[in-house]
Amino acid sequence: GQSLEQPSEVTAVEGAIVQINCTYQTSGFYGLSWYQQHDGGAPTFLSYNALDGLEETGRFSSFLSRSDSYGYLLLQELQMKDSASYFCAVNSGGYQKVTFGIGTKLQVIP
Amino acid sequence: NAGVTQTPKFQVLKTGQSMTLQCAQDMNHEYMSWYRQDPGMGLRLIHYSVGAGITDQGEVPNGYNVSRSTTEDFPLRLLSAAPSQTSVYFCASSPRQGGGYTFGSGTRLTVV
What is the pLDDT of residues A19-71, one digit of tens each? Predict the structure, then answer.
């Protein structure tokens, strides 16, 4: 089966940088995804890493190390609207099957 | 484009009743999935499909059935509702070449 570990809660200051780590164990690893979910809303896709290295999309970056079964999401220039839950998710056996971690609740404070 | 449409948004069932949660997407996505979300447990995969006529089980398939007769529709059937199935259910779809899953707005189900 699959298992993912990420911190349950993180607090950071507006304007700062925060890193949310994710470690995983899975068979048939295909890639690592990140999703954002605001309270009461649906998850929205942020990024996907299939190869080692850093992917940057605006203020968000995501990193993957396949040899370490580890990835992280980096959020820069934090804004209050970034307060949300962030989920790492593994694609296994192909792109179609996605298993989520329990999520990290990020609170951005002034 | 409407994206992924789920109906109903809210539902209350009595134990033992059956019902179908509807999911439709208009993006011609090959992949579709059903998740349930419970407090402190993240999103758990129930069933998924890689195309019309092809479905497979996820992490928590017991008590749920799915079928995929068309690319657009992926209904989730609760056979005999139990209080343990009280949850928020999300349907999602993705193109085969990647780009992440697009989620519907969810169905909040309460079983009493």
Answer: 999 999 988 888 999 999 999 999 999 999 999 999 998 999 999 999 999 99
To the nearest whole angstrom, how far is the Cα of B104 from the nearest Cα of chain A?
A: 7
Name the residue facing A99 among B59, B94, B98 (closest C-beta): B59
- Cβ contacts of B63 within 8 Å, gap of 6 or more: B78, B79, B80, B82, B85
Shortest CB distance from B45 goes to which of A45, A99, A103? Answer: A99
Task: Identify the three-state secondary structure at position B16.
Answer: coil
Q: pLDDT, tens digit, for every residue of B8-64? A: 999 999 999 999 999 999 999 999 999 999 988 889 999 999 999 999 999 999 999
Q: Which two tokens stand for residue B58?
A: 């996820």
What is the C-alpha separation between A106 and A85, in angstroms, rounded?
Answer: 6
CA distance B69 to chain A (A): 18
